[in-house]
Design brief:
single chain, alpha/beta, Rossmann fold, three-stranded parallel sheet, two-stranded parallel sheet, 9 helices, 9 strands
């Protein structure tokens, strides 16, 4: 988000025009069937701090450059679907996925909560918490990826899903803010601390983001299977393993994938 304020042109070029370039290339697919899942963001929605969770047909918006770039990408996608990919003989099938805040091992992006925590804690430093009460739809990366793959498989066999949009997020019955997430991480990373520092800025950041994933549950038979505690435990343990023995992290990543697949078979 911070980067989008510092460089709005790059943000909009990457997210909106980048999506446009992909769609334009798809116009030349003529012979082989092509299944495309375009992933935008929960920030595509016009944020009105509603508690019920955003549904796929809610209004799009963009108070900040990042959100606007994602909402812009959505409009471009729908315009191309209606203009160029609306023929039943067309070889390209397109679906749109909007995911919540994805966490999990391997994320080293700047200005993201979990990477910021582990980077500081690995050096025995306090992590700075800027918005402790902000609520996000936290989910493990395995959950989102599983949803995308399932969506693609369903789209291949069901042409009625062409042009459809689906939310992929955690169960809608509970919400957790930044401070609760950090406290839960502490259970798996001992002797750590943080410092809450409210930063006075004119840059907009939503306090409440929540997704309603009923449509994916009904039409795709998809659901989030990890609870909040499991999501934080799996994520935190990956980073602990990395800092303990980075040479073994590929092997450990595979172990986590196998563990998640086992849970899928048990819980779906």
């Amino acid at each position: 988000m911070k980067k989008s304020y510092n460089n709005p042109i790059e943000t909009i070029t990457t997210n909106s025009i980048g999506t446009l370039n992909i769609l334009e290339s798809l116009r030349f697919v003529k012979k082989k069937k092509c299944i495309v899942i375009l992933i935008t963001s929960d920030k595509s929605y016009k944020n009105m701090e509603i508690k019920r969770g955003y549904k796929e047909n809610d209004i799009l918006g963009g108070h900040d450059p990042y959100s606007a770039s994602k909402a812009g990408a959505e409009l471009i996608i729908q315009s191309y679907i209606n203009s160029y990919f609306n023929n039943k003989k067309n070889k390209v099938s397109i679906g749109v996925a909007r995911a919540g805040n994805v966490i999990g091992g391997g994320d080293w992006s700047p200005d993201r909560l979990v990477p910021d925590c582990v980077k500081s804690w690995s050096k025995k430093k306090k992590v700075i918490i800027r918005n402790p009460r902000s609520t996000r739809p936290w989910q493990h990366v395995f959950e989102a990826l599983g949803g995308y793959l399932l969506f693609a498989a369903k789209l291949r066999n069901n042409s009625n899903l062409h042009g459809e949009v689906f939310n992929f997020g955690p169960a809608n019955n509970k919400t957790y803010n930044v401070l609760k997430l950090v406290k839960k991480m502490r259970e798996h990373w001992k002797n750590v601390s943080w410092h809450i520092k409210k930063i006075n800025t004119k840059q907009h950041e939503s306090n409440l983001l929540k997704l309603n994933c009923s449509k994916a549950r009904i039409k795709l038979k998809w659901k989030s299977i990890l609870n909040f505690n499991e999501t934080i435990e799996i994520s935190t343990k990956w980073y602990k393993k990395y800092y303990t023995n980075p040479k073994k992290i590929r092997e450990y990543s595979y172990e986590q994938i196998c563990y998640y697949e086992k849970l899928l078979k048990e819980r779906l």
